[in-house]
Design a protein that fits this description.
globular, TIM Barrel, eight-stranded parallel beta sheet
Length: 216
């Protein structure tokens, strides 16, 4: 599987959201990454259904929605209806994770589970065969622009090994501090989807920054 790039619209210019969405449409990016934060699960608030719907109106590539919220089951249907193509929930926020994953699939979306930096990958053993995507957080969720946590390489390799026999087509996504300085090593240990926020939107030539990540 060739690796995928998912620019995070959390880092976009919200006064010019349509422009930035169309930039991603016309770039070599594969997905849009959409971070939903509620101020409770993480110490920040991002946006909700209206922004997802607005992005979907112009997006020509899939919306990869990442729910960093408590009790995400309340809103799965709403995000699916707003335009999510994949919905990722946090292991730490879902006491009945199997049920949540099945609910996402029943809505016709790709189903993912995310783990925070301090969450051991071993906890995914009983769910990894059932998910389409595992998102390994390489920073503590809540804010962009943080420093990449080096232990992420080990965690990605563990997820890759765990999924080799039970779910070989698993998307293994990394979110936080991803850029040209570490993407090659992350690919080497097994990651195949990369969320890119500041490394894309702070670049003078954003399509070129995406193209560089695709070439890695």
């Amino acid at each position: 599987m060739n690796h995928l790039i998912a620019p995070s619209i959390l880092s976009a210019d919200f006064a010019n959201l349509q422009r930035d969405v169309e930039m991603i449409n016309n770039s070599q990016a594969d997905w849009f990454h959409v971070d939903i934060m509620d101020g409770m699960f993480v110490p920040n608030i991002s946006f909700g259904f209206p922004v997802v719907k607005a992005a979907k109106q112009y997006a020509t590539k899939p919306l990869d929605v990442h729910l960093m919220i408590v009790n995400p089951d309340r809103y799965l249907k709403d995000f699916a209806e707003a335009g999510a193509d994949s919905i990722t929930v946090h292991y730490e926020a879902c006491p009945h994770l199997h049920r949540t994953i099945q609910a996402i699939k029943q809505l016709g979306c790709r189903a993912g589970v995310a783990i925070n930096p301090a969450t051991p990958t071993a906890l995914l053993k009983d769910i990894i065969a059932d998910v389409d995507l595992v998102l390994v957080m390489s920073v503590n969720p809540g804010f962009g622009g943080q420093k990449f946590i080096e232990h992420t390489y080990t965690k990605v390799a563990e997820v890759k090994a765990m999924s080799a026999n039970t779910n070989p087509n698993l998307y293994i996504e990394v979110d936080g501090g991803v850029g040209s300085q570490n993407i090659a090593k992350l690919i080497e240990v097994g990651a195949n989807v990369f969320v890119a926020g500041n490394s894309v939107f702070s670049a003078a030539d954003q399509p070129a920054a995406i193209a560089e990540l695709k070439r890695s």
